[in-house]
Known about the structure:
Mean pLDDT: 91
Distance between the termini: 49 Å
Strand content: 15-25%
Order of helices and strands: EEHHEHEHEEEEHEEHEEH
Helix content: 10-25%
Number of domains: 2
Strand order of the largest sheet: 3-4-2-5-6
Shape: globular
Number of strands: 12
Amino acid sequence: MIAFPVPATTTTRFAVAAEHVPHDLTGLLRDAAGPYAAHIAGRLGSPHLEVDREDLTTLRWDPRGIKAPRAEDRRRERAFQDAPEFAVVTACAPITDQPRAVQVARAAAFHLSAALGGVPADLVTGHVLTPPTEERTRFVLADQWIGDILPPFRANGRCTAPDPDRDPEGVNGCSCVRLRTRGLRRFGLPELQITDVACPHDLAALNVLRTAARRLLTDHWSWLSTGPADRTREIDADLPLAEADFNAFWGGRRTHLAPPSPFQVRLTFLTPRLLAVAPPDDLPGSVNDWLYGDTLPLGMYDVLHSPAPTPQAA
Length: 314
């Protein structure tokens, strides 16, 4: 079993970079429309939703640490980093108020971004938020909540290990890739990490993390709904996963011709805020043998971005 502390409250922050940010940000938010308008109005001015204007003389964080998750968003990254003023939205809310609290806060940031012509960013993941920048009513973990991006393939050319499709030894040709979520902590969970991954298996490893994160979050909210008095939670180190968990991460349904049986990951306690994800103890071989094998659901090897909706029958 693995035990970790569950905080009573968590804090999440978003920022909007712009050329000019007025002092009356509260007034701008009171003009918000859409499905979160009532929530924004009801929380505004409380710890559940605070908004502040900051400039380069008052910043307590470095805009240069905010990056674009995709190459095509580098212009947005530069615009954020070079901006002289910022609107910062902070939500400090009970863990039982998630995910609504963070959705309301991000909806407020999106509204300010549209009103100011600015660039929004998630200060927890450290990423600029990419379009579409509007908050949907249904919570979907794939909507830029956990900082799930891949590092540069082949370590920007520094890795010369063979490709496993051309050389069987290439399955374990390197161990360049380490992936870690950034954002689960706002829901009261430790972050997840997978290491020693060979470059060709980076996407499969990323989708294992995504699937495990979705399953843990589903179980976490079920646990919270029971109103536990103890703020320490115990979970089994062997976490069973299925294709349904992978689909749930994307908030939709994917159909495969031959879905494999459920698979397991082994969780290891590293710190109270970080768990390692690895193959089951009884699985022979390395993490790369596991990722390159046939135990993972189809699609985990090729789905990087949100899949297109499944066509509906006429």
